[in-house]
Structure formats: C-alpha cells, structure tokens
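Researcher: Next entry in the queue.
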Amino acid sequence: MAAVAGPGPEELILLEKLLGLKKGNKYGVREERKIPVLQTNNGPSLTGLTTIATHLVKQAKKEQLLGSTAEEKAIVQQWLEYRVTQIAGHSNKEDIRIILKDLNLYLEDKVYLARNNFTLADILMYYGLHHIIAELTVQEKEKYLNVSRWFNHIQHYPGIRQHLSNIVFMKNRLYTNAH
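Model: Structure for this entry, 179 residues:
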C-alpha cells in the first residue's frame, strides 16, 4: 500500500478549482509534516488543511459544504479532524487496514460522511485516501465494499477528480466460489 503524504497545498489547489475560485492564493508548507500555509493579502497567514479549506469554502460562498444543521456541522468537523490526525502521515499497512476497516463500518448505512449530504469532509477524505485506494487490490476493494462504494461515488461527483487518476472498481466478479 502507498505511503500517505501529509496534507499539502495540492489538495487545496484542487479544492480551489472545485469551488470555482480564481487562482492566485499563495501556498507554502511549514515543518517536516508539510502543514499547508496560505499567505493572505490582507491579514495573517492561515495554517492547517482544515482551517484553509474552511476559509476557501466560505470565500466561495458555499457554506452548505460545512453542514446545514448543528449536528451535520459537528460531523463534518469530526471527519476533517480525522482526515488530519488519522489519514495524514499514516503509511504502514496496519494503520491503513484499521482506517479502512473503521471507515467501512461507518459507511455501512451512509451515502456520504455526513449521512445524506455531500460536504467538505467527503472532498478532503477523498483527496486524502486517493493514493491508498489506488494501491488496493481488487480483493481489498471488495473487502472494504462500503469504502469502495463511497469512494467511487465521490470520484464521479462533478469536478472532484480533476487530474487524479480514475480508480477502477470491478462490478462483475471474474471468478465464482462455486465448484
């Protein structure tokens, strides 16, 4: 399985484009963990993936991506925190297996991370998991069926994937268990 880099400016540039914002923001990174930094023109710089992403969503006037109810907003924040604390920097197979197992269980009865609404959490989790999902075998994708269903749904959401590779999910089994 692939190593996962820390959340960098690349994800924020993809998010900017998805939100329809004009290019021009200047991003940098801080520290070894490559924490993204946004250099603003009219104030202090902003630091951190979720802080900057939330700022971009508000700048694009698409606050619905942050959740529409108090509960949904809390769920979105929970998954944004999970994205930064659990996904970023975890590269060993055991960590990745636990992340996929937990996410698979959570998504069992949900279309999106915030239940039935597409949010910033889905976007950033998709970008954070792309390299991991790309490395999974067909059998691993089948094992994490709910993650695969969610990921495939998100990658086909208009404007999300951009230049990232399309991950193929087998819909028909090429083999059977019957003898």
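Model: The radius of gyration is 17 Å.
Researcher: Noted, moving on.
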